[in-house]
Backbone:
């Protein structure tokens, strides 16, 4: 029997479920937290932009290429992607469904290796990571029937 994993995630929280048969309840395999995903950039930035001095001796600031919270969210998506890539390589699932906040869905998809992306059978761009249990159960049942 093919195993389906469903990732329910946003920038600060991810849960991975395994779907069994039609009569079985989804089994939660992992619950991962990224508290920095909800932080404020001012809380994470340790100091001001770096200062550079040009040949004329005038100083200017070097802007950040990525805000601290955005960097933490990208790291979380990459870590989640590596976990899924490893599980796919070990054949722990044959189908993958992604349910994530719209922005995070794109980051997560981009963090997956090509062989793992090819296992995706369903996507839902909706933030269900903090949804109440009945709403989450309904979403997982809908994914299971796709």
Residues:
């Amino acid at each position: 029997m093919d195993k389906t994993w469903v990732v329910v995630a946003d920038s600060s929280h991810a849960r991975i479920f395994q779907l069994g048969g039609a009569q079985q309840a989804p089994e939660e395999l992992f619950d991962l937290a990224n508290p920095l995903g909800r932080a404020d950039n001012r809380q994470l930035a340790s100091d001001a932009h770096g200062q550079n001095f040009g040949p004329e001796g005038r100083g200017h600031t070097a802007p950040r290429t990525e805000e601290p919270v955005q960097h933490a969210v990208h790291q979380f998506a990459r870590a989640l992607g590596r976990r899924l890539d490893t599980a796919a390589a070990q054949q722990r699932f044959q189908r993958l469904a992604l349910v994530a906040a719209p922005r995070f869905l794109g980051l997560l998809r981009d963090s997956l290796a090509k062989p793992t992306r090819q296992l995706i059978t369903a996507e839902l761009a909706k933030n269900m990571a903090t949804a109440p249990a009945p709403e989450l159960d309904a979403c997982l049942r809908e994914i299971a029937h796709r």
About this structure: The beta strands are 4-10, 13-19, 27-33, 50-53, 59-62, 95-100, 120-125.
